[in-house]
Amino acid sequence: MKTKRNPLLNKCKKPNKFKYRNLLIGLLLCLFPLNCTFKDSLVYNKFLMYISFSHKNLNFELENINSTRKTLLPKSEIDLNILSYNLFLYSKEDIYFGYWEEEKRAELLGKSKFTKNQDVIVLSRVFDTNARNTLLDNLNLEYPDQTDVIGKTKYGWDQTLGDFRQQINNGGVVILSKWPIQEKIQYIFKNHGCGNDTFYNKGFAYVKIKKGSQIIHIVGTDTQSEDSTCSDLGVNARINQLTEIKKFIDSKRISNKEIVLIAGALNVDKSNQSEYKNMLNILEVNEPNYAGIPFTWDTKKTRSLLIIISITPGTRPQITGNIYSFPKITFNFRFGRI
């Protein structure tokens, strides 16, 4: 009668082959009380069982989480939080929009909870200098690496590309990062757009940041807005600007192992499927997986209200919580009949 050998007993007869593994196990067992909490112990025990009974050569990586704790993580895994926000901080001199208490709103935004614990923040339409400085100063402690606003000056950028025009309003885009910015480029659109947008150096900011061992490329932009004074509401100008973004990204010859993200005010209505899909095709990007509420402002899930009685250039809205009120008028050349 034949009997089967116990494979574990068979391994024990070959101490030379496993002596380093046993040494490692012993070392890890000694470190266990010092380096693991109760919550981590189950994962740790599974790890020890795996290396104890595995036949094959082990290939694993230990990644630091903090100075006292290590854990197993997939090498390709990266967790990145990006906040993109159109702030509508127009300059007081803008005859289209007038004064919307930009400095007060900037101060409140800098203290808000949702601006905390991000990796990167992409801000658009932060045109007003005083309001922008207030906001960036308040966020500087958590996001020490910041670009200047695009279209204001060439100083402080690694490169300025596109068609930078002097003595015109800035482009309103700023990128803030918790992680080191290794490269920053401002690009001013060659297509200056139409309507009110022609008075601004619109374009995009490009940054290359490093989070841990991962390189991430981010483009923050504000493309042509929908404008009733444009012959086609600005669609053609926006298409040309999206094409400029794509050509720039191609020119960087970025490795397919690195992440490229485009954020900001792309000004394309998702409900307009024709233009939306055209944007995805031009940029050659994958459609994101959308989650949460479908609109920026959801009155069904948000108890606070935003009430605009009417808007007129140069008027001063009064802020009471989230309620804005304006002097009553019946017609406005920018927004039409109210």
Number of H- or I-type helical stretches: 7
Provide the succession of SSEs: HHHEEEHEHEEEEEEHEHEEEE
How does CATH name the architecture of the largest domain?
A: 4-Layer Sandwich
Structural class: alpha+beta
Approximately what portion of the residues adopt beta-strand conformation? Answer: 15-25%
Write down the overall mean pLDDT: 75
Strand order of the largest sheet: 6-8-9-10-11
Number of domains: 3
Structure description:
The chain has 338 residues and is α+β, with helices and mostly antiparallel strands. The chain has seven helices and 15 strands. It has helices spanning 7-12, 15-35, 38-53, 102-111, 129-139, 235-251, 273-283; strands at 62-64, 70-72, 82-89, 120-126, 145-146, 159-162, 174-177, 181-188, 203-211, 214-222, 259-265, 318-320, 323-325, 331-332, 336-337. It has a five-stranded mixed sheet with strand order 6-8-9-10-11, with no helix packed on it. The protein has a four-stranded mixed sheet with strand order 3-4-7-5, with helices on one face. Strands 1-2 form a two-stranded antiparallel sheet. α2 packs antiparallel against α3 (38-53) and α6 runs parallel beside α7 (273-283).
Q: How do you describe this structure in short?
A:
The protein is an alpha+beta fold and 338 residues long. The chain is 27% helix and 22% strand.
Fold blueprint:
Layout: H1 7-12, H2 15-35, H3 38-53, E1 62-64, E2 70-72, E3 82-89, H4 102-111, E4 120-126, H5 129-139, E5 145-146, E6 159-162, E7 174-177, E8 181-188, E9 203-211, E10 214-222, H6 235-251, E11 259-265, H7 273-283, E12 318-320, E13 323-325, E14 331-332, E15 336-337
